[in-house]
Amino acid sequence: MTEILLAFTFATFFLALSPGPDNIFVLTLSVTHGFRYGLATIAGLMTGCFVHATYMAFGISALLIQWPVLLYGIQFFGAAYLLYLAYQVFRSPAEIGEASVDAQAPLLIAMYKKGFLMNVLNPKVSLFFIAFFPGFLFESSWPFWLQIYTLTALFIVVSSFVFGSIALAGGVFTQALKRPGVGQVMKWVQILVFVGIAVYLMVVEPTIPELG
């Protein structure tokens, strides 16, 4: 059991570290708003991972494989949400740095929601879990759902550590980038990130694992 869980830990670490939509999303928001807001985004992403794990533990994820129209429907809504975020950034003022005291709590909640919805509306996460987790089932005497939740807890801890490090690095640059003109550049970087992830959701064909 220990060897399998260690292998899963290392695999998760390197997967979280490799460039992808989630860590680019975290880095961009951390640079723009600060470390705490990056952490709020990570909390939302990890809550979404828990939802996908629940889908898998109880067989709901299998519907995405059996009914591709459901898969593409969720992908569409996920991409539409990201384009909506890009539009929101486009309409907002070009600012870098933490919000005022009165606006901090609402912005933290907004960052959490962004992370959660971006993750939960990405069916590729469910497909990834279906393809990745079964190779690390570690104890035949445990119920399937309990093994999935155990692996998910480990996945969330490791991914949060990696993403938290990325958010910390991004937050360091927040103050350094508070210069004339930089806010406008970061505004367009955010827009391009949101649009890019939306295109990724719709254009890149998901790898659909076979059941059984």
From TrEMBL:
It is a multi-pass membrane protein. InterPro entries: LeuE-type (IPR001123). The keyword DNA-binding does not apply. The chain crosses the membrane at residues 35-58, 70-90, 125-145, 151-173, 185-203. GO terms for molecular function: amino acid transmembrane transporter activity. Keywords: Cell membrane, Membrane, Transmembrane, Transmembrane helix. It comes from the Bacteria. The keyword Transmembrane applies. This is Lysine transporter LysE. It comes from Aureicoccus marinus. It is found in: Cell membrane. GO terms for cellular component: plasma membrane.
